[in-house]
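Purpose: get a first structural picture of the assembly so the mutagenesis plan has something to point at.
Setup: two entries, given in the order below. No constraints added.
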Amino acid sequence: MNTQPPTLLELQHAVHRSIVGHDDTEAAAYILADGIDPAARLGIYRNTFASALNNALKLSYPAVHRLVAAECFEGAARLFMEDQPPRSANLDDYGAAFAEFLSRFEPVSALAYLPDVARLEWAVSRALHAPDAPPLDLGRLAALTEDEQAHVFFTPHPSAALVRADHPADSIWRAVLAQDDAALAAIDPASGPVWLLVQRTECGVEVTRLSEAAWRFTEALFAGRPLHSALEEAPGAEASALLAEHLAAGRFAAFSVSDAAIS
Amino acid sequence: MNSFAAVPQSRRGPIPAKAGIGLRFPHHQVVADTRPEVAWLEAHTENYMGGGTSLRYLETIRRDYPLSLHGVGLSLGSAEEIDAAHLERVRRVVERIEPGLVSEHLSWSVVGGAYLADLLPLPMTEEALDVVCRHVEQAQACLKRRLLIENPSTYLRFRHSTIPEWEFLARLAERTGCEILCDVNNIYVSACNHGCDAATYLAALPPAAVGEIHLAGHAVKKLDDGQTLRIDDHGARVAPAVWALYAEALACFGPVPTLIEWDTNVPPLEVLLDEAARSAVMLEETEREYAAADAA
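Result (structure tokens, whole complex):
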């Protein structure tokens, strides 16, 4: 056994290996036994780590949690947290890659729609926790010249996001959270794909289905493409109605006019 | 009209030496709607780092109550640098909420960029003291205010520790100007787990540096070999032995703002208010004794 006391950094890496990697050897050697096995002492901290992160994932993925058995969720969560422990102390940010992890998690492979539901839940969770931002100044937008309007590009509201899913993730998500078994049974999982818009409003997070063209137009706008370029994605009439709706619903936080219009 | 005129000013401000309760999500609505009789509230900094409903509740409630912010994520004991992005998130919440007090823990949670989601124990060494002092100073400079640092519950001790925890806290306070958040339940839990004397711990803390007290319930966990460890789960009423220790704490420190914390299986608000009322009676008694001693 190493008789030299560890530096603080060496000790912290050893505790990390114990908590995340289940290897107590080094950390246990630094601990006073005091009548209780050091591994049991370390186990208390490992349990807190696991239950805190399991809870964080459960809060972000409530429908996934209900769709699989609790033990199955816990098993997936545990493997996920050991593979990808949080990089931030803000646990609202934890779990972005859980959907991707679930798509490779063999025990749930029969539920082909599960990763889609997880991706939707992540967007919903992001929307819930997104920072506040005042909506864009409509008066300033209306004051632009026609040429400037064609070259305008937008910054989406921090809570607004788009999700495309191969399965009807929105119907499944709604039925599961409402615990409506009849509605759930009536859903054909093969009736996708769906094109979804997620946004936080005064009343909570809303998930809306869009047409594919409307979704692509919105995606172009959310990506910061100028209006004239985004319009290539959707027929003009539908696009202008949709743009008006986006503006009225506060889905943009800001706009600028690209240099092309200023010259 | 001055928009502040509609806001009752009298109850805002610094944290009084009275009993408060931890504000948790399940109680947002009832606290906002009913404005219960409680001297102050404490919220977890990490729960209000985004926007939306929770932050709006906190801002609404903040208008009527002195509020303190209690953080769990700064990892002041990390050997590596503290996470600047997290410190900035804390700074933004503090700027927005303008709390009466801001507190954190004598612990670490981050190594190699991984957040281990618990308040992990430090070896009580000169090296760890230097690290915590440096990080407390950095956080105080960023937040432009004095921090309170809380003693955590511990389930293990390191062989190479050389400084008693109370002395570590006292030296930390002396070197950085931070105050001590004395968690009486944590002292009790740690003392039981390590076979130490809780009263010795209390008596050794510098009274002038103690700016807040925490009280909470804990659990007793039976291990496989029949041994027990006390676990600080904040999931029950304050234990009788902890109330007794709290009386000793008040005798040592005088009246200090005292918080009832409850985090697992959060009960109806009335239960927390009931615990706070018990603490309030003891605080008033201490207040009277101090007033009598001053008059004599």
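The radius of gyration of chain A is 24 Å.
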